[in-house]
Write a structure and sequence with these properties.
heterodimer, A: mainly alpha, Cytochrome Bc1 Complex, Chain D, domain 2, 2 strands, B: 444 residues, mainly alpha, binds protoporphyrin IX containing FE, binds fe (ii) ion
Chain lengths: 147, 444
């Protein structure tokens, strides 16, 4: 039968080994992440953070589920459409739910758009296609709609 | 109660209950916004409500854990707390930081990172407060007569939670790195060190409530937390599938996170078997109810509903949908809300000397809150599955889909009303116990 000492050993060894592997994998995968970003992308990211857009939207699938996922927003919407949303002085609400009326200026809107563009270029192991259209079924539907 | 200084626990729990009512209020604001009743939008937009909801949740649980630690550690170490006055100071500081942060959220003063919205300037105050808390506990353990496994595991979990707060304070230009390190806090808390805290509280309660030998209970405590870290650390990978990092996480995250339910299952089996083995059952039936509830519902919410979307093949579709909200509610409720209710329900009669163990109100509170949260979780499940199907498989627009599934948010509001009724009854009971008093001191 397992003794308390053995149980303790199991805990200590298991924790140490998995933690070491975790740190190793972290270093390995972070080496492949781009860190020197263009300035406008970084500014856009900070606007995103400062205004807590994540409190309504998701990006990379993270955030709140009240408003559309934005990773691929520039693939489904025109740049000017997005600009319109960001610069709107009145709460934007195409389908009934309201966005905060930020009324961003031209420069801020461009920075946010640069940020979305950059996010849109990431390799997301398949999620970049999922965003709103995922299955072959859905792809067929999209084709029908665009015709 | 055995030591006078344990009384400070009561005030942490009072703060905890206050924050819980705020959490529920802002939950309703979001629930109503989802059915189109968003009259508060101008003052409390959804992102403010969401942030307040999540931050009050985390802080009421942490205040609950702190109260638990101040109650448990003196009893385990067999000594009064080191410097109880500092513990009150620590409570006041925590309250001030909390009020400042919650106010700021209404004035666009925050960092838009889910769960970590507290602005960095205030983060430092949080850190100082938590260090003070840990020092008080450590000094108490060190000067105590006994150094129990339960006390060390509880202390270890709390220290780990404090250390893991630090990666959340770094600022990044890249959304990928931001997300990567956000999970070091969020995931390694709830699927790592918080489970140690839960395990420590659970061990203490099982020792007190079932009368089973401490050595047996603490042996299994090691097994549970061993399984937790073995699966949970590398299980972090289940958040790295689709955020722009290496493919290796699909395999690592998939395998190890699929093992995570084992830790929760072990916890359930541990509690149930100690309960059925126990020969000297404590008369505080309600505390036993909440304790077993924590062990069982944590497995359902975290283990079963977590497993439901943790494999990369499923998560590809459910990532960032209401399916996640379904899981988040039952996991937090089962594991952490329930364990805080359990320790409070056990300790309140001892702190106040009012030994009512069979209150009808308390029982109704238990059942209503559980039925309420299960109703809410079903509503999120229905809405989530429908959302995945309509939006991600059929390819309809987000906004159109949300309007289609609106009916489920009415069910959500009904569930939330049942839950809140239960919580209000619990708080009435809490108040009726009265204040803690030295007269409740038990002869050693
Ligand atoms: C009055 C009762 C409640 C209502 C109406 C409510 C409603 C909501 C809503 C609408 C969201 C936002 C989902 C989204 O769009 O992103 C949310 C998020 C959340 N709530 Fe609640 N909630 C309530 C009580 C609770 C309780 C008691 C807990 C914890 C035990 C809890 C934990 C959470 C968590 C963890 C999230 C984030 C979930 C995620 O993003 O996956 N809520 N809640
Ligand atoms: C008590 C323990 C747990 C709690 C409190 C909890 C809570 C949560 C919360 C709040 C989120 C949303 C986080 C965010 O977006 O910031 C989440 C996400 C997630 N959880 Fe858990 N969880 C627990 C255990 C588990 C376990 C054991 C598993 C796996 C078996 C799991 C699998 C997942 C997955 C895959 C996601 C990501 C969902 C997505 O892609 O949107 N969780 N959890
Ligand atoms: C996991 C279980 C469930 C799934 C997957 C699900 C899915 C769906 C879907 C796909 C729709 C059709 C939306 C549309 O195109 O009109 C729908 C509608 C509906 N659901 Fe559910 N549902 C579930 C559970 C429930 C539950 C538990 C209730 C009630 C308590 C409920 C009540 C309704 C009602 C009343 C409608 C009609 C809404 C309308 O057409 O306006 N569902 N559900
Ligand atoms: Fe996780």
């Amino acid at each position: 039968m397992l003794t308390k000492q053995q149980a303790k050993l199991f805990f200590l060894v298991g924790t140490f080994v998995t933690f070491a592997v975790f740190i190793g994998l972290t270093i390995y995968s972070l080496r492949q992440v781009q860190t020197n970003l263009p300035e406008d992308v970084a500014r856009g990211k900070h606007l995103w953070e400062k205004n807590n857009c994540m409190g309504c939207h998701t990006i990379l699938g993270e955030g709140a589920y009240y408003a559309p996922e934005l990773t691929n927003v520039l693939k489904r919407r025109d740049v000017n459409f997005v600009k319109g949303v960001l610069m709107s002085e009145k709460p934007w609400d195409l389908h009934g739910r309201k966005m905060v009326a930020y009324g961003f200026n031209e420069q801020q809107a461009n920075d946010l758009i640069a940020f979305f563009k950059w996010v849109g270029t990431l390799n997301l192991n398949g999620f970049e296609k999922v965003d709103r259209t995922v299955s072959p079924l859905a792809k067929d539907r999209m084709k029908d709609q665009s015709n | 109660m055995k030591y006078k200084s344990q009384k400070v626990a009561y005030w942490f729990w009072a703060l905890s209950m206050l924050l819980l009512t705020i959490q529920l209020t802002y939950g309703f604001i979001m629930g109503f916004a989802r059915v189109g009743l968003d009259g508060l939008h101008q003052w409390i937009p959804f992102n403010t409500a969401h942030t307040v909801h999540l931050n009050t949740l985390v802080v009421w649980l942490i205040a609950g854990f702190m109260g638990a630690a101040y109650y448990i550690i003196p009893e385990e170490a067999e000594t009064e707390l080191w410097q109880p006055k500092l513990a009150y100071l620590q409570l006041i500081a925590l309250t001030i930081v909390g009020v400042a942060a919650l106010t700021g959220y209404h004035f666009n003063y925050w960092e838009g990172r889910k769960f970590l919205e507290i602005p960095r300037e205030l983060d430092w105050l949080v850190a100082i407060d938590v260090i003070l808390f840990l020092v008080i506990l450590l000094m108490t353990i060190l000067k105590g007569k006994k150094k129990s496994t339960t006390a060390w595991v509880l202390f270890g979990g709390l220290t780990g939670a404090a250390l893991l707060y630090l990666p959340g304070m770094i600022s990044f230009d890249s959304q990928v790195l931001d997300s990567f390190f956000r999970w070091w806090v969020v995931h390694l808390w709830v699927e790592g060190v918080w489970e140690l805290i839960m395990g420590g509280i659970l061990a203490f309660l099982l020792i007190k409530l079932t009368g089973v030998d401490r050595e047996v209970i603490e042996k299994w405590l090691y097994v549970v937390i061993g399984l937790t870290f073995l699966s949970g650390i590398l299980g972090t990978g289940h958040h790295y599938y689709y955020i722009g990092v290496n493919k290796i996480w699909l395999i690592i995250g998939g395998i190890f996170s699929a093992l995570e339910p084992l830790a929760f299952l072990a916890m359930t089996l541990w509690a149930l078997s100690m309960y059925s083995k126990g020969e000297k059952k404590h008369p505080n039936k309600l505390a036993i109810f909440w304790t077993l509830n924590a062990a069982i519902v944590a497995f359902l919410g975290a283990g079963v509903l977590g497993l439901a979307h943790t494999l990369p093949q499923t998560n590809l579709y459910t990532h960032g949908t209401l399916v996640t909200a379904m899981h988040g509610h039952l996991a937090f409720w089962g594991a952490y809300a329930s364990i805080v209710f359990a320790i409070m329900t056990y300790a309140l009669p001892n702190l106040t000397g009012r030994k009512v163990y069979q209150s009808v109100r308390g029982k109704v509170a238990f059942w209503l809150s559980n039925i309420g949260i299960l109703t809410m979780v079903s509503a999120f499940a229905a809405a989530g599955v429908a959302q995945v199907y309509l939006e991600r498989i059929m390819g309809y627009e987000f906004g159109a889909v949300q309007n289609e599934i609106k009916v489920h948010f009415w069910v959500l509001i009904i569930g939330a009303t049942i839950l809140s009724t239960g919580i209000i009854l619990y708080i009435i009971d809490f108040i009726k116990y009265g204040l803690p008093t030295d007269e409740a001191l038990e002869p050693a």
